[in-house]
């Protein structure tokens, strides 16, 4: 997750700069108030030996690193232009952090200021009488020398460095001459920016590199996957953002393949698009290579990606999304237009999901949240590709002058919720019942209520985005926050007690206790042998283990309510009803089983005699057996569902009320097992 937030800064100074040919930049003449700073290694400006400024830049000022690197590259060729580059870097750093509040920003700006004062006196102009003409002529000279001459003899990484420096020089030129547009340089810079994309950095596959073809790009499966992604015919064109990019040099971004089209449609970051493009190509090539391993070498030269390859990748990528739709009884938004003759829609859906995942950052730990985002964006995608009436459309996500609209409008608000909850925890010192973790936030998307409460585009006034750090007084001061209530913890809230040893492992403890009771009864029988269990009197006494089981079940139901008491208000109504019904049923069986058993005892005395007279003259032994069978019925169903998982999956798709009730009744044990494993 790339941090694009602009911090509040550190140093007070005027923001003037070399802006016109008549005015020479004289930083020494400015009234600059310099605060006393700590002496940090490399920042004082008094060390001997060369210092690389780009290595000292604080992380909050990362965008100025290319400018300082360009200054170091051209230092020997033209020190005055290198000085202008550093001055531009200083101006941008001050704009990004005017109060120098970021870590290390004040020290870095102090060092850079020392360096600029020194270079202003020591450097001389070589090509012109003013700084504006100096940078213009040097920019023209640099482009002709490094970008036009000897183009075929230089390596791609070397050309990429030259194009990067040329791009920086054009930014410096615009900074020095902001009020004097020059169409000649604008047109030249436009060509530089387009050629620069051909020498961009890559991880494994050099997709956009000009020059000789790399061996990895000659693999038939790789070539077929690249060709498949570059089939962008019949797709409508997103209207370009005229405010994005350098003014006057960009008529529109270059769209080479399907992921570039998704980049312009949904506002993903360019770096993420390049990474996921390689990711998708390698996935397609690897799956296709496994499926066509016995193909003759001659047939592989004209290889094409098989349809089964894309279908297999679809099932693998969207397995969790399909399960989420089934759980919420939703219709999947992965829809293929009827007139689709190629696999272009499938690749668009796969690319969209990979791009969402690539920019999700910590939201990746909330898989159902990603499903919610993809569900709505897939619907937007289908609306765009199925409507062929217009050749262009307005993208769903756009921020003026920014290339990270999806990050800022979708991921950043959710990330802020995660960050605020982590702040609430105070590094784990606060009770976990007071703040929400990833599971709590993710469980918000387990219900259809999220569609009404959160909506799409996501409503920033939703309770999901309520700031947990605000106090009650802060909420009362803001009228718009009066109706907002922070979403409570929705997941398991543990009360720390040793009773969890029984609650979490109730089946194991029940087995030990009931087995111990049965063995004691058999051991104290007249014969004392294991075969004594077949004697009627001994077998009748062994049957008392079900009364003990009813008591343990009552204890379990009581602990479910007591230990979940802190999360009681956050439970949905159906969960409350299930807890209460289980408690009531446990009390009922705790009364029914002892009463029916006591009536079967011959010559009863005391309390047992009272219950026997209350029951009457029924043949209570058969009644007790029937009660035991009825008591064991839910446990039998639970065991069957646990052993035969395909049967449970089939029943989960059923809309029968009886089946839904049985699944609802046995849900507690499954949820508790999930908590134990997580």
UniProtKB/TrEMBL annotation:
Keywords: Membrane, Transmembrane, Transmembrane helix
Stretch forming the signal peptide: none
Region described as Disordered: spans on this chain: 1-31
Compositionally biased spans, kind Low complexity: 7-21
GO molecular function terms noted in the UniProt entry: glucosyltransferase activity
InterPro entries to which the protein is assigned, alphabetical: FKS1-like_dom1 (IPR026899), Vta1/CALS_N (IPR039431), Vta1/CALS_N_sf (IPR023175)
Transmembrane segments: 508-526, 538-559, 580-602, 622-645
Subcellular location, record wording: Endomembrane system
Gene Ontology cellular-component terms listed: endomembrane system; plasma membrane
UniProt xrefs under Pfam families: FKS1_dom1, Vta1
Domain 1,3-beta-glucan synthase component FKS1-like: 344-459
PANTHER family per the UniProt record, alphabetical: CALLOSE SYNTHASE 7 (PTHR12741:SF16), LYST-INTERACTING PROTEIN LIP5 DOPAMINE RESPONSIVE PROTEIN DRG-1 (PTHR12741)
Protein's UniProt name: 1,3-beta-glucan synthase component FKS1-like domain-containing protein
Taxonomy of the source species: Eukaryota, Viridiplantae, Streptophyta, Embryophyta, Tracheophyta
């Amino acid at each position: 997750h790339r941090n694009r937030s602009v911090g509040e800064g550190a140093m007070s100074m005027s923001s003037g700069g070399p802006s016109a040919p008549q005015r020479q930049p004289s930083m020494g003449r400015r009234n600059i108030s310099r605060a006393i700073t700590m002496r940090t290694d490399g920042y004082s400006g008094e060390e001997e030996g060369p210092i690389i400024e780009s290595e000292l830049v604080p992380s909050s000022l990362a965008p100025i690193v290319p400018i300082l690197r360009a200054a170091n590259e051209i230092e020997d060729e033209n020190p005055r232009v290198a000085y202008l580059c550093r001055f531009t870097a200083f101006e941008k750093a001050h704009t990004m952090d005017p109060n120098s509040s970021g870590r290390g920003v004040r020290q870095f700006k102090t060092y850079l200021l020392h360096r600029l004062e020194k270079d202003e006196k020591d450097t001389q102009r070589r090509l012109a009488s003013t700084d504006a003409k100096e940078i213009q002529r040097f920019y023209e000279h640099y482009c002709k020398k490094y970008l036009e001459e000897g183009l075929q003899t230089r390596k791609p990484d070397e050309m990429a460095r030259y194009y990067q420096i040329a791009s920086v020089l054009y930014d410096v030129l615009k900074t020095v001459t902001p009020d004097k547009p020059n169409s000649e340089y604008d047109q030249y810079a436009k060509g530089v920016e387009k050629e620069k994309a051909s020498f961009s950095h890559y991880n494994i596959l050099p997709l956009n590199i000009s020059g000789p073809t790399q061996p990895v790009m000659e693999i038939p499966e790789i070539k077929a996957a690249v060709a498949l992604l570059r089939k962008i015919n019949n797709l409508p064109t997103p209207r370009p953002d005229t405010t994005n990019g350098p003014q006057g040099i960009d008529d529109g971004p270059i769209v080479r393949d399907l992921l570039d089209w998704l980049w312009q449609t949904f506002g993903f970051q360019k770096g993420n698009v390049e990474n996921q493009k390689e990711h998708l190509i390698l996935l397609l090539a690897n799956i296709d290579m496994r499926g066509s391993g016995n193909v003759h070498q001659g047939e592989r030269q004209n290889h094409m990606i098989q349809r089964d390859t894309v279908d297999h990748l679809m099932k693998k990528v969207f397995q969790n999304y399909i399960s989420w739709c089934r759980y919420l009884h939703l219709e999947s938004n992965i829809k293929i237009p009827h007139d689709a003759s190629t696999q272009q829609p499938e690749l668009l859906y796969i690319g969209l999901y990979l791009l969402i995942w690539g920019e999700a950052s910590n939201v990746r730990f909330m898989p159902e949240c990603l499903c919610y985002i993809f569900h709505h964006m897939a619907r937007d995608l289908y609306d765009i590709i199925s409507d062929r009436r217009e050749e262009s459309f307005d993208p769903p996500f756009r921020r003026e002058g920014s290339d990270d609209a999806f990050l800022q409008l979708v991921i950043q608000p959710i990330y802020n919720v995660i960050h605020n909850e982590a702040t609430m925890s105070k590094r784990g010192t606060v009770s976990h019942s007071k703040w929400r973790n990833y599971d709590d936030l993710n469980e918000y998307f387990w219900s259809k209520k999220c569609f009404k409460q959160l909506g799409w585009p996501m409503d920033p006034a939703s309770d999901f985005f309520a700031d947990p750090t605000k106090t009650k007084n802060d909420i009362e001061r803001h009228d718009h926050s009066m109706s907002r209530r922070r979403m409570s913890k929705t997941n398991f809230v543990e009360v720390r007690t040793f009773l969890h040893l029984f609650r979490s492992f109730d089946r194991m403890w029940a087995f030990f206790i009931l087995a111990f009771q049965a063995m004691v009864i058999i051991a104290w029988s007249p014969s004392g042998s294991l075969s004594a269990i077949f004697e009627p009197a001994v077998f009748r006494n062994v049957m008392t283990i079900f009364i003990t089981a009813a008591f343990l079940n009552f204890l379990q139901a009581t602990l479910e309510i007591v230990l979940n008491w802190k999360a009681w208000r956050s439970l949905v109504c159906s969960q409350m009803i299930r807890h209460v019904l289980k408690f009531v049923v446990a009390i009922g069986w705790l009364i029914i089983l002892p009463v029916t058993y006591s009536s079967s005892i011959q010559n009863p005395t005391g309390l047992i005699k009272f219950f026997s007279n209350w029951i009457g003259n029924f043949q209570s032994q058969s009644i007790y057996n029937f009660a035991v069978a009825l008591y064991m019925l839910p446990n039998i169903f639970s065991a069957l569902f646990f052993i035969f998982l395909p049967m449970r999956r089939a029943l989960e798709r059923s809309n029968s009320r009886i089946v839904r009730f049985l699944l609802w009744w046995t849900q507690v044990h499954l949820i508790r097992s999930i908590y134990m494993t997580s």
